[in-house]
């Protein structure tokens, strides 16, 4: 377990540039992968559907947003709207008879196109102004979906998802949706892991860190910022279609409002900007903290005889997100991932004090 | 930091510094021609009609007191500040007003006076970024890393490792760039510029804040870069010992105008230059003392 770095020598650049150069991390990743694959055998179906599935989907969404915020350094307060576009577009496509696989890509492309138009403002504005521009996107998209019955699906404003199949397997029951979501999550995760060691990811990071220095080595900063919005929105759109088909199964506009965008930003910041692992941590915390809190309140109400209004109960999670964002920004701007990294570094060389990786 | 020329070990190396058979008189097109460059910042005229040209294979010095417009001149050449008037021609192509990344892709690399490295990245990644124009980055290439990008990545890694070795950065290549000392950071930035295999390399005070030994190192690297890679180099430098030792030709700027040019030693000894550096009264006193 300890001295995990000792004796490990890489003799080829290829080995040194592995996603996880240390065997320990590779084994850990494999273990988590196997646990995810065999989860339906290991945990109750109820937990699978109501906890694990949303965690997988929201982690994928957080990865997509983290690509933009952590990878390219652009803030986005309207990622919920990006997901909404993908969800509505792909549901309409499958309702029109398109196969789910194509609808998923179609939803991604539409999200990417709209996201890039709003992202284009990122080329002119920075910081607060970009935040406002993306916030505007959230409201405009919300408005358009609600105002056009052709999009939202008429008066009662829920759009049923028909039965679909993915790669020949019907996406019904508990298992198929979980595995579809897991596959998409895996693909996005691999993309994000490779980002760090590819020229594309480096160029994005260069634009994020110092745009004039990026320009001087030949990076077209204009193009890369646009690309960052394109790719991130594409992932968001695909997540939207997975969310609609595998989880919600019937979508309505209120599922994609501003509070979703805020939750996603919270996931990224609490988890760790630019960290793949952090996106999973962040999604877990934002997803499960309110549930635990609610259970705590239920316990407090029944066992301790405290009276807590439902109003308060529903607002506490929102306050908690706010508190967590502020807390992490103040004390650990790199989020849960950094806390994990510190721990890992400590044990990497225990009982000594110095760690390099 | 207007240092007066001092006699150092530099003068001894002079013979080494000036290679024979330089294509100076040879009728090859100049690498850079700046014609009548003017650059204004609001009411301030930072450059007032500067014309200069840099020949192929040359080490060209740009000197002058603080605030004389050297960095501004370089920013005009590399597209950061489009000239208010005048034209910049690189490799025979008019590039006035063209974006910096397009000038970089023509084969021009530069370093900055106040370091422009990417924090949070390792030394290696910083230098790898120097290969950007030679690589084909794409989102799909990242997604299909094992099939599309890996081989390219490794091939360029080899080129980068050569430069890492050349610049003696082996033992810090995995350090985050912000934790290493400034002198080394300057060297990393020079390495990043070199791995681009530029035809024209622009260095803005690469030796600022270095001690004599580090300066000698950098000067060696610059000379080697010219020798081994046939790079044309423009260097801004305040250390006159270095300038006289390695430059073939210099231009001296003062208040945005050229006040002297030509062979380094002669140009620097020019009365106008002495005056610009140490002030009129001191110059007269010095002239009196010499007489
Ligand atoms: N972006 C800018 N906006 C306004 N004024 C500027 C700008 N850049 C440079 N200047 C002005 O132009 C003049 C020339 O500056 P420059 O940086 O080119 O001098 P320099 O020769 O590089 O000096 P140093 O030796 O100190 O580096 C200075 O008066 C400076 O204040
Ligand atoms: Mg300067």
UniProtKB/TrEMBL annotation, chain A:
Pfam families: BPD_transp_2
Keyword Transmembrane included in the entry's annotation: yes
Transmembrane intervals: 27-43, 49-68, 75-94, 100-121, 128-151, 176-195, 227-250, 262-293, 314-331
Protein name in the entry: Branched-chain amino acid ABC transporter permease
A GO MF label: branched-chain amino acid transmembrane transporter activity
Keyword Membrane recorded: yes
Membrane topology annotation: Multi-pass membrane protein
Matches recorded under InterPro entries: ABC_transp_permease, LivM-like
Major place of residence: membrane
GO annotation, cellular component aspect: plasma membrane
Keywords: Cell membrane, Membrane, Transmembrane, Transmembrane helix
Cell location: Cell membrane
Organism of this sequence: Tianweitania sediminis
PANTHER family: ABC TRANSPORTER PERMEASE PROTEIN, HIGH-AFFINITY BRANCHED-CHAIN AMINO ACID TRANSPORT SYSTEM PERMEASE
Automatic annotation (TrEMBL), chain B:
One Gene Ontology cellular component annotation held by this UniProt entry: plasma membrane
Keyword Amino-acid biosynthesis part of the UniProt annotation: no
Domain called ABC transporter: residue spans: 32-280
Superkingdom of origin: Bacteria
GO molecular function, one term: ATP hydrolysis activity
Listed CDD domains: ABC_Mj1267_LivG_branched
Keyword Transport: yes
SMART domains attached to this UniProt entry: AAA
Keywords from the named record: ATP-binding, Nucleotide-binding, Transport
SUPFAM superfamilies, per database record: P-loop containing nucleoside triphosphate hydrolases (SSF52540)
Pfam families according to UniProt: ABC_tran (PF00005)
Name listed for the protein in its UniProt record: ABC transporter ATP-binding protein
């Amino acid at each position: 377990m300890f001295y995990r770095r000792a004796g490990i020598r890489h003799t080829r650049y290829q080995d040194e540039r592995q996603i996880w150069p240390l065997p320990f991390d590779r084994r850990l990743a494999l273990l988590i992968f196997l646990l995810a694959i065999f989860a339906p055998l290991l945990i109750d179906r109820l937990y699978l559907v109501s906890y694990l599935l949303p965690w997988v989907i929201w982690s994928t969404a957080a990865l997509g947003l983290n690509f933009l915020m952590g990878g390219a350094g652009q803030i986005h307060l309207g990622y919920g709207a990006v997901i909404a576009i993908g969800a509505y577009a792909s549901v309409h496509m499958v309702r029109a008879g398109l196969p789910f696989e194509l609808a998923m890509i179609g939803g991604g492309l539409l999200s990417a196109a709209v996201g890039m138009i709003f992202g284009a403002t990122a080329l002119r504005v920075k910081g607060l102004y970009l935040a406002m521009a993306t916030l505007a996107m959230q409201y405009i998209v919300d408005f358009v979906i609600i105002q056009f019955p052709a999009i939202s699906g008429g008066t009662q404003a829920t759009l049923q998802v028909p039965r679909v199949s993915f790669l020949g397997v019907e996406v019904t029951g508990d298992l198929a949706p979980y595995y579809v979501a897991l596959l998409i999550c895996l693909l996005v995760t691999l993309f994000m892991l490779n980002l760090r060691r590819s020229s594309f990811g480096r160029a994005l990071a260069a634009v994020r860190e110092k745009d004039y220095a990026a320009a001087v080595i030949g990076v077209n900063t204009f193009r890369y910022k646009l690309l960052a919005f394109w790719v991130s929105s594409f992932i968001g759109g695909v997540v939207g279609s997975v969310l609609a088909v595998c989880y919600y199964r019937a979508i309505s506009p209120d599922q994609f409002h501003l509070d979703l965008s805020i939750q996603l930003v919270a996931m990224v910041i609490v988890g760790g900007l630019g960290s793949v692992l952090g996106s999973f941590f962040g999604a877990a915390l934002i997803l499960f903290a309110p549930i635990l809190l609610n259970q705590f309140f239920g316990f407090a109400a029944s066992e301790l005889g405290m009276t807590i209004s439902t109003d308060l109960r529903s607002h506490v999670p929102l306050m908690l997100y706010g508190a967590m964002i502020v807390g992490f920004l103040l004390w650990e701007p790199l989020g849960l991932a950094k806390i994990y990294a510190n721990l890992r570094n400590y044990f990497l060389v225990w009982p000594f004090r110095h760690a390099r990786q | 930091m207007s240092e007066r020329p001092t006699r150092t070990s530099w003068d001894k190396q002079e013979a080494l510094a000036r290679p024979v058979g330089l294509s100076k008189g040879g009728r090859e097109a100049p690498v850079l021609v700046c014609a009548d460059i003017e650059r204004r910042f609001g009411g301030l005229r930072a450059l007032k009609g500067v014309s200069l040209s840099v020949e192929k294979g040359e080490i060209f010095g740009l000197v002058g007191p603080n605030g004389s417009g050297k960095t501004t001149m370089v920013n005009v050449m590399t597209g950061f500040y489009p000239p208010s008037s005048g034209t910049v021609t690189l490799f025979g192509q008019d590039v006035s007003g063209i974006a910096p990344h397009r000038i970089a892709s023509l084969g021009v690399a530069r370093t900055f006076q106040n370091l422009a490295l990417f924090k949070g990245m390792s030394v290696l990644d910083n230098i790898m970024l120097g290969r950007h124009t030679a690589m084909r980055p794409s989102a799909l290439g990242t997604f299909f890393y094992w099939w599309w990008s890996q081989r390219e990545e490794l091939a360029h890694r080899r080129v980068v490792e050569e430069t890492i070795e050349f610049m003696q950065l082996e033992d810090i290549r995995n350090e985050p760039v912000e934790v290493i000392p400034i002198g080394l950071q300057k060297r990393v930035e020079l390495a990043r510029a070199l791995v681009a295999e530029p035809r024209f390399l622009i260095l803005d005070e690469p030796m600022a804040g270095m001690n004599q030994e580090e300066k000698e190192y950098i000067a060696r690297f610059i000379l080697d870069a010219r020798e081994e890679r046939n790079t044309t180099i423009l260097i801004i430098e305040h250390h006159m010992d270095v300038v006289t030792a390695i430059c073939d030709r210099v231009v001296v700027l003062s208040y945005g105008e050229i006040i002297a040019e030509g062979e380094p030693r002669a140009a620097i000894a020019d009365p106008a230059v002495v005056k610009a550096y140490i002030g009129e009264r001191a110059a007269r006193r010095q002239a009196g003392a010499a007489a």
